[in-house]
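Case 298 in the screening queue. Each case pairs one protein sequence with one candidate compound; here the compound is NDP. For every case the pipeline is the same: read the inputs, emit a complex structure as tokens, and attach any notable structural observations.

Predict complex for case 298.
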Amino acid sequence: MSDKIIDGKLISSEIREKVKKFGGQLKSKTGKVPGLAVVLVGENPASRVYVKNKIEKTIEVGFTSIEHKLNEKVSENELIDLVDKLNNDKNVQGILVQLPLPKHVDSDKILDRIKPEKDVDGFHANNVGKLWSGLDSLVPCTPLGCSIILKKISKDLSGKHVVIIGRSNIVGKPMAALLLGMNATVTICHSRTKDLESVCKTADIIVAAVGIPEMVKSYWIREDAIIIDVGINRVERDEKKILVGDVDYNDCLKKCSLITPVPGGVGPMTIACLLLNTLLASYPQFGEPTPDLSSILE
Ligand code: NDP
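Case 298 output:
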């Protein structure tokens, strides 16, 4: 493997080992095991694969996995009732409602129904507000994973210019809040940004979270830029379905200093961070002080 390639599989397996270790210590102290409830609605094939992976990894770190598979036609009220039940279940420390939900369900309403202390996706307005205020909170898993990668490869981001492409609530915006907390100078781009290519050329680090296959080209990036590719796009090549990122990987690999591959970069970090969040959510629910994230990850 080229030494320019950031091995997300390796970093994520190290995180899962640490989660397992701290979860084991928490169990020895309290006699309780963290539980993660996953709610899956409908038959979306990508969501089913994500959920299957999440459940496998939850069990691997020694946590309890609670799965609720619901029919596509489930009503909003039935979903609210299920979230309420999980909110009050002492065996459940983290609740994840897999997105997207069917169109007839108001996703924001469901996500905001989850108790903030069990909101391991970090999407509840209370957690979003805390993140932007620089307070401890549960942080969305994908940007948390990107920030852990960046801390690992570049200890100090002070003054570095990071260009984030994408302003979604799931990736782009929380990524910006985390990077500001790491003293980076942050530019957020989106579909109305003018001359994206020129903006990218000014970046020390690019975080691409767009959903457009291989959009970022080598002539967009500075020599030695660090590239974090969040994108997961299914495309057809030579009659085969493959996954590619939002960055033209083979093209940018030559010019950048470091890059996350797709698959095997940010993707596995997301699941590791979900387990990390479930661990972090469990301490206060078990009446224990929450350790610093850095002490878990060191
Ligand atoms: P969204 O569709 O919610 O957001 C995409 C963002 O990209 C929007 O802010 C949009 O701008 C912006 N955008 C779209 N077209 C352009 C363009 N031509 N130029 C500049 N910006 C543009 O996507 P997500 O944030 O949910 O996901 C982004 C990607 O990351 C997807 O490929 C997704 O599959 C992947 N992903 C991967 C995860 C992982 O675990 N690795 C987890 C989550 C997502 P505007 O706001 O103006 O519409």
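Case 298 observations:
- The CA atoms of residues 27 and 33 lie 6 Å apart.
- The first helix runs from residue 8 to 30.
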